[in-house]
Each structure stands twice: as structure tokens, then as C-alpha cells.
């Protein structure tokens, strides 16, 4: 690999609350704990922990939360694009409240305007998603950038990671997703995304919509504890999730996404190949690898994706 995977999107601090006031946190108050997060930032960390050189285009400040983010990203080997750390910018936050089953719901305090976007020669993949793809003015910059990659030898992946509290209009949000998906080779959705964006439709029907454009070659839909479905133009696979004791689900989808990209890279399916050669067995294997990475994250507190060594030690 001659250049890092490029990840574009928000980096923020998750303020995780158990909802019962009994947790212990960074400040020891109200059962809350401040931890580095943001879906694209989590994906970048997950990729780096799995051994892929990774560059993140984001924006956060030099306030205490920003210092915490910077230490976390640098400590995990993630490169930051120029302009990502901005002293004039206030670092964004997401307050995550956990229910009795450890499932998180979010409330956001965020602004998004990325630094200049560019593609390094040899970059194997560009990933984006979540709030960064719908919150202006940054969303427009991402749409323009992805459209400019149409003739570039790079694989594009997208995880919309819908946030109804930020974009409550499902119809307009789905329209925005379709625009971005038309520039992506692979689109990953969760079952919650599907229920919000396309209520009443099956995963296969949603995948068929996304695969109707020339560029998109594969759709993967996660189903929490039930595993995930992978659908390409020539194959459909279902992967079950291993039985685990869930601590919380924070960052599980992001761990899945980073492992999916890493699995595709290990099989030579990124870059100018753009998933060409993704047969049923390979699709099953990479989705299974991603499901197991997400499972490890669910056994931990917060967005804590596994390293390649941890994945191997846990699942072989």
C-alpha cells in the first residue's frame, strides 16, 4: 500500500451516560464518561488497529475535548490531514444514553466544515459517512469530492449511519444517501438505518435500490445480534453473530465498517479493482470478519475496536 486509506468525517467526544447515575466517568459525575468518538473517527482508529495506514480528514479544536481526541487518534496511529486541528473550532460532542440492554441513543452538539479534500496518489479507499455527509456546509464538500473520484483508481465506501435527531425527515435523508451512494462502490447500512430511511421495505429491496446505479457493487446490512447480510450483483450471503455478553453497542457499527474495509484490502479488492472479483465465498468471509470485530467491541465499554491480534486471538 503506497498511501493510507482516507477517512472523511466528524471526530467528537462521546459523553456516555448509563441513564441511572451509577456509572463512573472521567469527571466522576452523573454516571457519565467522556470518550473519543464520532463514526468516521472510530472507523479510522479501527482501520489503524487492524494494521492499515489511515488518514483522517476532520475538524476539532484545541480545547480539553480536542486534546483528548488528538491524543487518542495519534496514539492509535491515525494520521490527521492538514487543517484538521483548528484552534478556532469548538470540539463537537455526542451524548450517548444507554438503555438496560446497553443500546445507545444519541444527542449531538456538532458543527461540520472540513478542511480541503484531496486524494493522494495510490490511496486504496476513501470512506465517509454519518453526520458529516448530511450536515452543511461540509456535506456539500463531501458530495463534490466523491463525485470527482468517478475516474480515479480508488474504492469508495459509505456508511450513512442515519441520525434522526439531526435529520428527522427520512425521505429527504434517503434522497441525500442515494446521491452519495451513486458515488460509492460499497454501502453499509444498519437495520436501524433501514427502518428509518425505508420503512416497510426488506433489506433485499433496499439493496436492489442501491445496486441500481452503475457504481455501487455491494450493499452490506448489519442486524445487531443477528449478524449481517451481504448483497452484491452476483451473490447474497447471511452471516450470524457469535453469542457474546454485551456491555454496550457504542462503536460496534464502526468496528464492523473498519473490519469490512480491512478484509477487502487483505484480499486485494480495493483501489482500482473496486471490488471486481468479489465472489460469494469472499463476501461471506469479509462480512464474517467484520461481524466478529463488532462483537468484540460490544464486549467493551465505548467505541473500542479490536486490533488485528485481538481479533485473531478471539476468533482464530
TrEMBL record:
Phylogenetic placement of the source organism: Bacteria, Bacillati, Actinomycetota, Actinomycetes, Propionibacteriales
UniProt keywords, alphabetically: ATP-binding, Kinase, Nucleotide-binding, Transferase
PANTHER family reported for this sequence: HEXOKINASE FAMILY MEMBER, PSEUDOURIDINE KINASE-RELATED
GO MF, one annotated term: kinase activity
Protein family (similarity comment): Belongs to the carbohydrate kinase PfkB family.
InterPro entries, alphabetized: Carboh/pur_kinase_PfkB_CS, PfkB_Carbo_kinase, PfkB_dom, Ribokinase-like
Residues covered by region (Disordered): 19-40
Carbohydrate kinase PfkB domain sequence ranges: 5-306
Keyword set includes Secreted: no
Superkingdom, natural source: Bacteria
Designated name of the protein: Carbohydrate kinase
